[in-house]
Amino acid sequence: MCGDFNLVLDYDKDCHNYTRQNNVKASDEVKSMCNELSICDPWRIQNPILKRYTWSRINPTKRARLDFFLISTPLLTMLDRTDIEPGYRTDHSIITLEIKISNFINGKGFWKFNNSLLYDKLYVEKVKNVIRHTKYEYALPVYNFANLDQIDNAELQFSISDQLFFETLLMKIRSMTIPYAAKEKRRRSGEKSELEHDIKQIHEMIDNNENVQSNIQERLEELEQKLERIRKKELDSMIIRSRCKWIEQGGGGKPPGDVQIPPGFPVPPGGDDKGGKGPGELTKTQMEAYRFDSAALERAAKAAKDLESSKHAKEALELSKQQESTKQMEQQARIKEMEAHLEQMKVEQVRAQQEERRKTMQEETKQHQQRAQYQDQLSRKRYDDQLAQQARLNEENIRKQEESTAKQEQMRKATLEYEYELRRKNEQARVEAEMRGKAQTERENQDLIKEQIRIKAQENRQTVLESIKTAGTVLGAGFQALITDKDKMAATALGLTLVAAGVYAAKYGTGVTARYIEARLGKPSLVRETSRLTFSQALRHPVKTVTRIINKPEDALKGIVLEPSLEERLRDIAIATRHTKKNSGFYRNILMYGPPGTGKTMFAKSLAKHSGMDYAIMTGGDVAPMGRDGVTAMHKVFDWANTSRRGVLLFVDEADAFLRKRAKETISEDLRATLNAFLYRTGEQSNKFMLVLASNQPEQFDWAINDRLDEMVEFDSPSLQERERLVRQYFDMYVLKPATEKKGLFGGSRLKVADFDYSAKCSQIAARTEGLSGREISKLGVAWQAVAYASDDGVLTEVMIDEKVGDAIKQHAKKVTWQRDQAIKEEKEIGKSYTSEKDASVTFSKPYDQTS
Q: What is the pTM assigned to this prediction?
């Protein structure tokens, strides 16, 4: 079957730019039909991964392989090629399929051969010719066909296998034998009919005319002999076909030694083993035996008359009947035995046929497998060749495109250069013509131009003199009137003074006012987050402002889980800061260092709230991009902090990003200037702001920064007890509270918790999460909440919790691996830089030693 099915068998390989598969039910029906009927798509079998399409549409672009063949699976061994070719005046392509009939494996089959043809010399000669032509057709080209008959058949090599050659030879002999036998049968039948007709006419002629000539009598005998030979030949053929006569190497009617003849089975007449004559070699005396002799009938009639006249006629008749009955019974018994023997022979024949068929099927299966493997190798090689050819074509096309592009570009450049040269020559000619015309005009009008210049200069001189005289007269009269009137003189001096003061105030007072307003009400650009409310924020959020004023300071370590000794130290810092704020004392600068996610930023915010101060958070990474504006922005931060009445806790996160060593680190001049400004503003203790630095690498700080720090606090990763407290805290915050709170007026929360021991599970999680920071544990709590919301029923089970804990542990291990690899890489780079600096110092010292 073939045609436009309007469906695809493989959506992934046969469709392009489809959002969904069309005709899914029809496609499933076709696939089911293919499985039931053992049919397949030959193009996909030969091209298992290639994507080509038989239908396409331009807007929007869609392509699919809707046209294909469906053939029986056994025909794959005969498949030579299938391809997709471009169509003409249609949106479908042409699909082609080529099958080689010569690849068909002929089965052995069953065919009843007429053994009497073996005595036909013409037929035997035809068989020899068929064998000779078949050898010529399939013999390898290495042989000399002129001498091919002189080579033994067992030593010949053919282009196909010996088994296939034998099957092909049998098929060709069969195709020649069937029409020959039919033709001979028709010829003999026609000849027999003609003889019978002629004999009948001669007999009628003899019956009607008693005086028959001798030649007619001879003609009758000749025709009867011919008819007798034909009947004899048919009888011999019937005997041979019925297997009632054994013919072995020209022998007679004696059966082979391995054949058991049942008792009473009639043996047909024939020659003996000592050279008896066969059915085709009968003598004239034997031929006369087949003539009709009426003497026996006459004797039988006479015996019947004598028997009737006898007194024992009835007894003889009964005796003959009994003898006949006995003979009939014996004959029936023999027939039964023969039938049983024939049935046994049929069973043996069927068994032998089935065994032969089984061997044939095994051999055919083997041949099919070998041919399939060979076809697969050919298809793979063909596919590799196609890929190589396609790659070569692509390379050739790319090369041709590049050459064409280069040629076009060269032609375009040549065209532009030629156009530019023409334009330049035209412009040069135009300028030269204009200059020559202008020069010619000036030479011709030289006297007029000189007279015009002289008149214009005279008029200009007269105008200037008149203007000077008029201005002197007016200014002199006005100055005379001003110095003579004291009131006008005083008013003029006062007006000039006020104008100068207004200009100065407008020029300098606006900038001072803007800076003051910015310092009081605005937020510096380096400050990322702050709790200080501006005037506009207070108006927008009045409730928040009132709540902040009314609320009392909370515990500085509320919600923060740390080591007991560290908690005690931080609580002392919080209390000291709070009392410093109340007594308007000088604040102390603090450095908090340790791994990320251990609570440094959280404690800084809580410390500011506990002390009643405003907090401002800035990051060290924002300073370097400021460039030249970094110094100004840094001063604005400290100016803004000094204007706060509550005091500001200035928290600098990732401070090591810009507070690096100035002596050894390679930093830009802008960043160095910003660092100097920072050091200048933090050189003395302040009662307006408290500086808190956070860093993961405090060893990179400049020594001047270390000198400005009053206290250093190390935040380490939580231990087992702290992790258990953190797990319980975040499990309660993100799981238990949302599960027990009601959302809205008409329903509860979607989050539900399965029934298990929460306390034991928290302890187990704390033991598994060794090395995780507080931030990672808090994210783990958020992950539990998210996986519960993502489930179908919203129930958080123990299995979900364990899965998320396992994911968090794997992610932490990966981060640790990255950090270790980065540290090793930095150590190698430091070693290389040290080696290069050492080599450079040695290289530069050699010329100095030589000159010295």
A: 0.39
